[in-house]
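Tutorial sheet, problem 5. The two components below are modelled jointly, 281 residues in total.
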Amino acid sequence: MSSTRYVVNREDDPGIGHYSDPPLLVLASLAGGPKHGHAMIEDIRALCGTRLGPGTLYGAIARLEQQGWIEPLAPEERRRPYRITAEGAAFLRAKLTTLQQVSKAGLGRLEAQ
Amino acid sequence: MKPRLAHLLLQLYPRAWRERYGEEFEALLQAERGGMRNELGAVLNVAGAALKERFSPAPVVARGLGTVAGPTSVLALARMPSAFLPLAMSLTASAVLAGHLLLFGIAREADEGATAHIWQILMGGQIPILAVFAIKWLRREPKLAAKVLLLQVGAALISVTPVFLLNL
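Model answer (structure tokens):
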């Protein structure tokens, strides 16, 4: 699942290396509690430096909702918060475990050099 | 972002998507802050995402029902531009042909006239639209899309058959 996105570079970052899997970032953000769109964008930026564009964010939200991995809550004025479902949490856990294994192995190999 | 621009950008999305996410998405766009550069980035981002929704849409979940909102009948699907345009083009081509036959009879002309060119443009022009329809809808709604495709092919045959039978 990929989407159009734009990112904000950090000063010490040449513009590569941002983690940009929008659905996974949305799930990771919602793992910390229900949030509406703007709060998700800010949380994801704080999490990894990636700034999801509004179109990218809602592309991911639509697909995650269709998968049953997130669900909408009652709207707060015009904003609608979302929360992660049990299935979404299970998927996120499995995905992050795999990423952790890759990260551990990659860092281990770098240390060995 | 100015409410008017946010509203305009929302119109780029398919109707089903707008009905489901429109209000909250517009509120998010209006909350976008930053200079011209940020705003331009957001506009391009939304335009790209809307284009993706049009050509490779995520099935939209109806609010509170947990069901997929999409065309549920042949008639509903036939109202999509890529469905009715080929039908309209075939019917127009048939009408142009019928008008020509009524006015000039079935005599074959040595040189192709304006009628022939209009007919060819209408029939040839619908091929890419048909392809877009097939690619987009056969995956999502195979049965409904097959029925609409049958209608489209039928309308095209109605227009093509007299041309070949009468050797026009």
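Marking note: The interface with chain B takes residues 3-6, 36-38, 53-59, 61-63, 65-66, 72, 75, 77-80 of chain A (CB under 8 Å). Full credit if you identified this.
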